[in-house]
Amino acid sequence: MPARAVPESNQINVPPGHEWDAGLPQPPWRTRRKAPVARQPLSAEAVIETALRLVDRDGLDALSMRRVAQELGTGAASLYAYFANKDELLEQLLDRIVAEIPLPVAPTDGAGDWTAVVKRSCWDSRAVFLAHRDLVKVARANIPVGPNALRYTEALLSVLRGAGIPDRIAAWGMDQLSLVIVADAIEASIHAGQGRQTEADAEPYLAQVRDYFGALPADRFPNLVAMAGAMTEGSGDERFAFAIDLMVDGLARYAGATDATTEGAAAVTHGSAVLESPEVVPAGAGAVADGGGV
Q1: What domains appear along the chain, each with residue ranges and CATH number?
Q2: Residue 147 has pLDDT above 50, yes or no
Q3: Which biological processes are named by the entry's GO terms (predicted)?
């Protein structure tokens, strides 16, 4: 029987290699083709934002140039057009989150409490670092020089100098405040990594430490035994507030002094800071970290 011609209007144009798709259901064992994913245009900003999402989700240890490239749907080599290496990416990533910290504004015309402005800024900085898991570890032993860090530094120094804090004291004070903020945020990220994300989570561990201190031989450790409760009490927020109050209130003692009267206020000898000026005597000294004194 001769083949009958199919009217042109009834013909189905099927691309080569896809003949099975012409009006027939796919066999159940055949893998369905995935729709192609549109790639995000590559740029330095896209790399930074992608890296930040990766750290927020999986932590700093999970960050690598390869992982970031996979998230972007590209090869790791393409990232090096924007960043020389991972360290450079981390440096800019840290500066990216510093941009989230509100810039402190000095009180105008002597009105307002400059110490409240500085303390508020310390809390704002800590909140930003805590919001990004353990990315704050990048800040260790590095002087921030990114554009956002420079703007923040300039703003806080303006507050301190505007309050009459001498230049050296303002510079050193800001440096030491930063150390407290970074150390507190790093410790919080370590606690979180160990499953102690809240005060309630940490209480079983602190109770063990408290009981251990209380069980020490009182003749050898009378102070630790007597202070077992005090050594382990207080929330992370309470201890941070204590540290910031201690430091900022200490800075306030220098307001109105001159660099000439503070040149000998601190001398560093063999790694120990020694206060030499009889006119500037600190009210006290101490450092506290969550879960115990350091």
Answers
A1: 44-83 (1.10.10.60), 108-259+269-293 (1.10.357.10)
A2: yes
A3: negative regulation of DNA-templated transcription
